[in-house]
Amino acid sequence: MERRESGGEGRVRSVAVIGGGIVGLSIAIAARRGGADVLLLEEERIGGGASAAASGIVTLSQQGRTALRQLRREGALAWERWLPDLPSIDGAPVGVLRPAVRLFREPPPHAEKLLATWRRAGHDARYVERDEIAARVPGLDPVTVHCGLLLDREWIFDPPRLLRSLARQARELGVEVREEIGGVRLRGGEGERTTARSAERGGADLAEGAEVIVVAGGWRSGRLLEPLGLPPLPLVPVGGVGLVLDLPRSAEGWTAHFGEKGRFHRVGRAGARVYLGSTLREEGSLEPGAPAEHRQLLDEARRHFPEIDRARLVTVEDGLRPKTTVRGGPLVGPVTGRPGLWVATGHYRVGLAAAPATAESLCSAWGLREPGEAPPAAFAVDRSGPLD
Description:
The protein is α/β, with parallel strands linked by helices. A hairpin with a 7-residue loop joins β8 (184-187) and β9 (195-198). It has helices spanning 22-33, 67-82, 111-120, 130-136, 159-173, 221-225, 291-304, 351-365, and strands spanning 14-18, 37-42, 57-58, 95-104, 126-129, 147-157, 176-179, 184-187, 195-198, 212-215, 236-245, 255-258, 263-269, 272-283, 313-323, 332-334, 341-344.
């Protein structure tokens, strides 16, 4: 990458992004749109990590005090601006907006307060009876639900298709994409500018001239930063176990959410007739899902969709998400004492939701967003303090 002189005070002209998932691709696209030269480095292949195993559902979540919740909410709003510009894949859109219903087996506690909370979040929300739900959610046994809370919209993505679309757009915009490079090693002492080199002994400089290097490697971000002698980031991998199944009839109705604490289940996905069930394994888990865990999900699905059988199993998805504390983070910002080094992880199950807002926040800090655009939210980059 050829280094340029900055054309204005605080304006970054060249960016290197390490990590080719949804967060890394979004940063690369936003920085390129802002006029920077951008290099995207991926150790394996673009979209080969946890991003491809995401649930694919983004909700305009309730407003909250935590920075992570704000980031997720701003990301959902940002997708409204991003989606129209993303190229379709195989003639199909990468995401759609659909109504969503949250199912309750028993009367919801504090029902009116819950409804008011979702309306304050910006949703046209109302409660619906089981007969109306059954008419819109194919294959559902209405006896298994008491009522539902209907939200006017959710963003439904097909994650593999979204990744292909983002990668295509990045290349079309002129981002230099290098994948399957076999490993990256960061070097640089405190107060020194960090460099990114090939992991091979005596490896070449991979990001020569980059003013900013962004580590966007999800839960692997901590491993990339270890050689710099930095305090460990609060990141551990969390394994995801999922089943994707055909529904017995067309899934043109609402997206449905149901489940118990610690487990979530979704119906509906862009461009496919599927049921998606997903749960999280223990923190630190690196192993793929065991057959017993898959059976547990299938049994749970059959409680609500009795027509499902194993013959309709399409695929099994396992993913590893970065785990930060829900009330901590988000890990988006500069690394103290390391000029030009930044971190942007995907966070706890919200990488897809937070990606565009993460990218816009960083680009605002780098002077790559034009005046008059939506300002970054309060979670935006802390330019002085340490990452916490």
